[in-house]
Amino acid sequence: MQVFLQTFIGGVSLGAIYALVAMGFSLVFRTMGLVNFSHGNVVMIGAYIASTFYLSVKLPFAVAMVIALGLTGLIGVFIERVLRPLENKDFDLMLIGTIGFGIVLEAVAIIIWGATGRAVPNPVAVAPVQIFGLRIRTYDLVVLAITTAATLLLVYFLQRTKRGAAMQAVAMDHEAATAVGIHVGRSNAIAFMLGAALAALAGGLVGPLLYVNPSMGGMLGIKGFAGAILGGFGSIPGAIVGGIAIGVLDSFAGGWFQGYSDLVTFLVFTMIIMIRPTGIFGERTVNRA
Amino acid sequence: MTQGLEFSVSDLTVHYGGVCAVNGIGFTVPAGESVGVIGANGAGKSSALKALMGLVPRRVSSMRFGDVDLSRVKARDMVRHGIGYVPEGRHVFSGLSVEKNLLLGAYARPWDAKTRAGLADVYELFPVLGEMKDRLAGALSGGQQQMLAIGRALMSQPKLLLLDEPSMGLSPILVETILGVLQRLKGQGLSMLLVEQNAKLTFEATSTCLVMENGQVAMSGRSADLTHDARVRKIYLGL
Amino acid sequence: MKYRIAGIAALVAFAWYLPYQLDSYMIHVANVIIVFAILAIGLGLVMGVAGQINLAQIAFFGAAAYGTAILTTRAGFGFWTAAALAMLIAATIGLLVGTPALRMQSHYLGIVTLGLALALTNWVTNAHIAGGAEGISGIPAPELPGIDLHNAYFFYYLELVVFLLALAFGLFVVHTPLGRKMRAMRDDSLAAGAVGVEVPQLRMTAFFLSSIYGGLAGVLYAGLIRYVAPESFSIANMFLLLAMVIIGGRQSLIGCVVGAVALSLLREVLVDYPTYAQVAYGSVVVLTVVFAPTGLAGLPKRIRGLLRRVGWLPGDTGPVPKLGPFLPYAETPRPAAEPILRIDEVSMHFRGLKALQEISMTVNAGEIRGIVGPNGSGKTTLFNVVSGLYRPTAGRVYLADKDMTAASPHVLARKGIARTFQNLRLFALLSVRDNLLVALDQTSILSNWRYVLWQAGVWRHDQSLRAEADELLQRFGLTDFADSAPGELPYGTQRRVEIARAMARRPSLLLLDEPAAGLNGEEVRQLSEIVRSIRASGVTVVIIEHNMGLVMSLCERVTVLASGRVIADGTPAEVARAPQVVEAYLGDSAMSEDVPEIVETEAAR
What we know:
The complex is a heterotrimer.
Chain A: H1 2-32, H2 39-56, H3 61-83, H4 91-113, E1 118-119, E2 129-131, E3 134-136, H5 138-160, H6 162-172, H7 174-179, H8 184-206, E4 211-212, H9 216-231, H10 236-257, H11 261-275
Antiparallel strand pairs in A: 1-4, 2-3
Chain B: E1 7-16, E2 19-29, E3 34-39, H1 45-53, E4 59-65, E5 68-69, H2 75-78, E6 83-86, H3 98-105, H4 113-125, H5 127-131, H6 142-154, E7 160-164, H7 172-187, E8 191-196, H8 199-205, E9 208-213, E10 216-222, H9 223-226, H10 230-237
Parallel strand pairs in B: 3-8, 3-9, 6-7, 7-8
Antiparallel strand pairs in B: 1-2, 1-4, 4-5, 9-10
Helix pairs in contact in B: 3-6
Chain C: H1 2-17, H2 24-49, H3 57-73, H4 79-101, H5 106-126, E1 136-137, H6 152-175, H7 177-187, H8 189-194, H9 199-225, E2 227-228, H10 235-248, H11 253-269, H12 274-291, H13 295-310, E3 339-350, E4 353-364, E5 368-372, H14 379-386, E6 394-399, E7 402-403, H15 409-414, E8 417-419, H16 432-440, H17 450-453, H18 455-475, H19 491-503, E9 509-513, H20 521-536, E10 540-544, H21 548-554, E11 557-562, E12 565-570, H22 572-577, H23 579-585, H24 595-603
Parallel strand pairs in C: 5-10, 5-11, 8-9, 9-10
Antiparallel strand pairs in C: 1-2, 3-4, 3-6, 6-7, 11-12
Helix pairs in contact in C: 2-6, 2-9, 2-10, 2-11, 3-4, 3-5, 3-9, 4-9, 6-7, 7-16, 10-11, 10-12, 11-13, 16-18, 16-19
């Protein structure tokens, strides 16, 4: 039981990261109807920028995170701007275009930071919390708190702000959105920017948990994506539940199957998705008519 | 909404792929008047309306609203020049609530007390929307969605309303309701351009009317006269 | 054609004499390039031809390479036995990966296939049997009597032969019924289903086919390098492969090969700067999708088009293609008036919207039935239910007394229902002739065994289809447009192509959705002649139409829908006089009697 709970808690913490990645996927899908395959590598870039400002420039972790969010957001804006001619025309091509960006980002990371990777020390140097005999790292709690805050902010943005409503309207009917005066391109740019900022948040937070290296984007991206689909693509609560579920699944698979954990996670995921293709909360339908 | 502007278009042409959907049509909507465009499906009336909005590429030699030249205005800025657009079919933002849909209609304006007042006006015009303001737009019936689309366009406080087949898919009584609404709006001095396949609605809601065939204006005249025109009756009932 | 044969001969000769010019390093490079070319053909088939996103091609490749390695070094099989078994493994995995394609849309397929590729790398890096991160060395070279395949030069010729056969087979598939159906599915899977293409099974076939190419490449790779390690099958290589296919032009197998050769050479030139090479090809992928979506293969056509526009090349000078007259079908005696289509209390609801409410109607064999009603009254929804695109919320649909409710579109197409679409759904990238050929082919997916064992039979079948297509083109006056893309044709001609495509199914029941929309007076007259002749040949026709003149003159019976209900049914004259119809169309205040009833149902929603 002890081991079970400890594994579970470890999974939730990593799952919170997957949930942030999943939210980035879902946000872009919900506001543009596009699956951004470069998202995982944007997470990786975010991890590098945050760790660089934290380790090399020696800024406080929080400040490094804020800088990473800003810079990575700009990368998102750039990707959207280049691919804009394909918007509302051919989303399959655009998807391949994002894969192309993913390839470039990974290579750029190797050029700038080298191929070897780096370890990021835990920025919260406080002893683990003991609850009912379970050891919980303080940093895990920080991750959970930040994820919760980011989720609430995102939900607030989509539900309560004019821009948030407009961005969702664009995905549902871009012509009608244009007719009421919404600048569709700008809305999509903001979606990409926010998606990239979420990616940077996930990347910055995951640094102290995993080893930061140029190829981490693939696995993080695919697990986040799996989380998003599992929860119901495009749904924000779905992204949270799905991301955490993948994290927990991962954690148990890691405990029981060691090196084969990714394999097992994917087999389970594929099976679930075959049985229920729309995920737990159902896919948010996006009109592309 | 009270002081009107004249909307005039000349030589509007629209190509879809290799197909010429609209071939050099021109017309004028006088201030505070409403003009109808009727014709069979595929005659080009819907394309013409979309092209006026700038939603599809067009060629036009002139397009003016009052003193303003609209021929180079982008689709997203039309609403800022006082043009409201009600798209064909159920093009509401289906995953957002009714109230969000209406508020987005006022996207180009600040969301202030005046917008709130506009919201109240729409709910007064369509009480059913007020009852359902928290429902998702996609869960409304066809008639309610149509009302929502009109209400959304009104939220921008337009001076000219472009309507694309508001009667589509509605039962006769709902068509009557829409007609009542259009007449009321007309009474408030709003100019309208109504594209329709329902001739009856169009004749009753407008003062002049164009009949389109194969991308061109086949006939035009006072709506009251066209009602009795043998050719119109033939096209519409095959009598 | 002559130039083409000469060109191919020159290329084959070049490939044949190439090794004489290469040192031992470069011959190795050439050998690896061929492996990638075979992989790219497989990926081109599934992505470019069948339109299914597949990021697992590298996993098929890896599975076969590792399969060969394990079976030869661990189980002691000979190379060829191991190779055959490894191909089988790759094919099995291909079918497994294809299973989700039975149910899923593109972005799901993307993730599932990518996940599989990652899972394979994960497995081989960890599994003891696969040698972990060090991989497996000491794979024996394949043996051929009299040829020493340890020698890279001889291996080159083995690869060349396999490659040419693989390319030839791929091209054969693309230009015969199987590939044509795949291309149709890529362009418009809905319309493909409506002309009898078994879309889910075909998607799976596409994955199977690409896994065969992956397997072939994997076996060759194992025999060539005689060493396998996880990094050869990494995601980075999958993306490199994807870049080859996108940059080369995914819709053309030749383009895929060109892309594979070009990127492999680029990688070789930049071998000391692999990350810069990665930046380069990643950027080229982005630029390609934005500026030249058809890739290198599409460039000649684009350049020709450009030159023509600026006037450096003369335009098409041949005779202006002309729509020929329609040649009527032979008349058959009118069948007995038995019900061919019976719709029983069918309702169709979409969330809050009741598109159809308890519709009942019967169409007799040999009839021309008109369905009219205001826009949005549910006519097209009714067609979609009858042709299997929608599963009705309630009610049954009978085809000649057989209950066919909610059967798949392709099953219904095979039972004799053909249809056209309100907003033209022609296969955009297929020529007019290919559009018809897709519909003409009535064979099922199972008959594709002949691609493996009896290619001559496939070829002969294709020839007979082509003869039928020529006849059909002639009948509909489309001969001049046979090789044009549908989008280049005048609107009225496109409408006619769609009717010809529907008739290619030799249906017993033809559903026409607003065939006269957008046609001019003369075209409407020709349409009515065509529909009459189709009926006279024994086909029952149901026609949705707004052109009342056409409906009144053509149809024997007319059903009027309004707000998802049947409001009248009878001869054209009866219907035109029916007060509720006049109300629905022109409106007449005298007729407001029925209105309250409809109000109630509206309010009851």
